[in-house]
Amino acid sequence: MSNPSAETPQPLTPDEEALVRALGQVMYVLPRTIDADMVGDRQLPLTEYTALMNLSEAPERRLRMHELAALCYLSLSGMTRTIIRLETQGLVKRERCEEDARGWNAVLTDAGFARLEESWPSHLAAVRRRFLQHFDGHDLARLARAFRQAGAAETTD
Amino acid sequence: MSNPSAETPQPLTPDEEALVRALGQVMYVLPRTIDADMVGDRQLPLTEYTALMNLSEAPERRLRMHELAALCYLSLSGMTRTIIRLETQGLVKRERCEEDARGWNAVLTDAGFARLEESWPSHLAAVRRRFLQHFDGHDLARLARAFRQAGAAETTD
DNA sequence: AACCGGTGCTTGATTGGTCAAGCAAATATC
DNA sequence: GATATTTGCTTGACCAATCAAGCACCGGTT
């Protein structure tokens, strides 16, 4: 991403500076507190919750590994490991893919669905308490748009 | 709407839902992309950059371990390990604390300061490109306030 | 002055992620 | 239709974080 020509780029304005510092804080703190809330409550870490949630929304409650990984913003190997954890708890099972024998589907089991329903209120509460609450009165739709842009990784350069 | 009982808490509005999903994305993706940008450019991972930056702003460019840990939103042991990495690169040194022989100060070396100056533009560019840019036209001060609230961990309930 | 609980930091074990290498099935090329 | 390349996922090695246990020193009590 190399330094754009100038050796001393435009420094941040105080407002920008404040936002960037606050971002640092949020990036570090939020995932951990939400995760901690959920683990404390129902023993379901955020990553595993996210996986189950995405499965529950998929047709047939099943998804190929790479699709699920993308939806969870996880590497493929990270996803493999998450699914293994979920499988040993009986919340998910893996089935070979019909039309491509290299592929696997992760399938949400009934136990997995039940567990998700159980965890859902806790997750919702954590998200409200730790996050949404503080954006009361903001234009949420507009914020969401900005967030999505920022999150769209454009790994390039 | 029907019964908001204890078992079915108020679900999210579509706007809230969108924001929460976008947050998930940002929480996962941003730290990694910013880190990747900086590592690619100057071999300074974000955690180490943050430590150096906080030291550079401290009086005498020195800080006790627990102070630095708090500023970096890191556990004390995480901080120990980060400082060890920085020390082996010669960017920081540790000195026993004068008034309390149990304590240590992490001190930014000249090499560390130089390295920080070198990395600064790259960090700035990454932050602009990955984050600030997408909040053009927003009320940054207000946003920063909301972020800070969300980041203020209140670990217990 | 000898103890003893509390504090500051480090160390050991574990965890949850990464990337790179590997394996098996699919597909393209000849 | 045999071989080479690509694709889908898993595995191995590693890394940066965590928590809990340990060690050294402080400061108050007797």
TrEMBL record, chains A, B:
PROSITE patterns: HTH_MARR_2 (PS50995). Gene3D superfamilies: Winged helix-like DNA-binding domain superfamily/Winged helix DNA-binding domain. Residues 16-152 form the HTH marR-type domain. The keyword DNA-binding applies. Keywords: DNA-binding. One of its GO terms (biological process) is response to stress. This is DNA-binding MarR family transcriptional regulator. The lineage of its organism: Bacteria, Bacillati, Actinomycetota, Actinomycetes, Micromonosporales.
